[in-house]
Specification:
heterodimer; A: mainly beta; five-stranded antiparallel beta sheet; B: 116 residues; mainly beta; four-stranded antiparallel beta sheet
Chain lengths: 112, 116
C-alpha cells in the first residue's frame, strides 16, 4: 500500500537541541497528523493539521502543513530526555479520504 | 474522557492456536480501526469499521483473521490459526468520524502477541 516518505529515519541528539523531521507524499493530502509512540504504548496524537500552510504548536512542538499539500514537518524545540520515542506522520489522501496513510517513523534518542 | 481500552495487554500462544483481542473505543466514536504493528515498522491497517459496517478490510488476511463489531461499539479481532509471522502489536483506534471521513484517530495501548 501507499506510504509516506518520512525522514530522517533516526536521530540522536543532545538535550537542548532543536529537532526537525518531515514527511512527503507524491499525491495531495488534505489532513496531516503527527503521532509519538513510546515503547509498549500505542501512538499518541500530537498535532493535527487541516489546511495548507497551517502552522500549529503544542508546547515545544510545532508542525506545518506544506503549501503544496504534499508535505509536512514537525519541529521540537529545546529537546528533553522524555522526547525520546518514535514519531510518525500520517495523512489523508485527497483522493481517498477514508484511509490514513502512514510514514515509517523517525526514531529520536536524546542524550542528557 | 476514557481512552480506547484494549485487552489483553500481552499474549503468548503457540503456532496454530487461536487468539482473540478485544477493543472498546472512546464513547461516541463511530469509526474503529484495527492495526498490526510489527517491530520497527509503522502501523498497518487491518480493518476499519464505520459503526458496525466494514469500510476497508483490504489488508486483512481473511483466511485466518476475522473481526466483528456487532453493535457498533466494541470489537473483537480473532486469529485462527496463528502463524509465527503474526507476532506483532495489535492496536485498536477510534475516531469520531460520523460522516464517513477520517478525523483524528486515538489509539489504545495495544496487545503484544508473541507466537512461538
Amino acid at each position: 500500500g501507499q506510504q509516506l516518505n518520512q525522514s530522517p529515519q533516526s536521530m540522536f541528539i543532545q538535550e537542548g537541541e532543536d529537532v526537525s523531521m518531515n514527511c512527503t507524499s507524491s499525491s495531495i493530502f488534505n489532513t496531516w497528523l503527527w503521532y509519538k509512540q513510546e515503547p509498549g504504548e500505542g501512538p499518541v496524537l500530537l498535532i493535527a493539521l487541516y489546511k495548507a500552510g497551517e502552522l500549529t504548536s503544542n508546547g515545544r512542538l510545532t508542525a506545518q502543513f506544506g503549501i503544496t499539500r504534499k508535505d509536512s514537518f514537525l519541529n521540537i524545540s529545546a529537546s528533553i530526555p522524555s522526547d525520546v520515542g518514535i514519531y510518525f506522520c500520517a495523512g489523508l489522501n485527497a483522493g481517498n479520504n477514508r484511509k490514513l496513510i502512514w510514514g515509517l517513523g523517525t526514531s529520536l534518542a536524546v542524550n542528557p | 474522557e476514557a481512552g480506547v481500552a484494549q485487552s489483553p495487554r500481552y499474549k503468548i500462544i503457540e503456532k496454530r492456536q487461536s487468539v482473540a483481542f478485544w477493543c472498546n473505543p472512546i464513547s461516541g466514536h463511530a469509526t474503529l480501526y484495527w492495526y498490526q504493528q510489527i517491530l520497527g515498522q509503522g502501523p498497518k491497517l487491518l480493518i476499519q469499521f464505520q459503526n458496525n459496517g466494514v469500510v476497508d478490510d483490504s489488508q486483512l488476511p481473511k483466511d485466518r483473521f476475522s473481526a466483528e463489531r456487532l453493535k457498533g461499539v466494541d470489537s473483537t479481532l480473532k486469529i485462527q490459526p496463528a502463524k509465527l509471522e503474526d507476532s506483532a502489536v495489535y492496536l485498536c483506534a477510534s475516531s469520531y468520524n460520523k460522516l464517513g471521513q477520517n478525523t483524528e484517530a486515538f489509539f489504545g495501548q495495544g496487545t503484544r502477541l508473541t507466537v512461538v
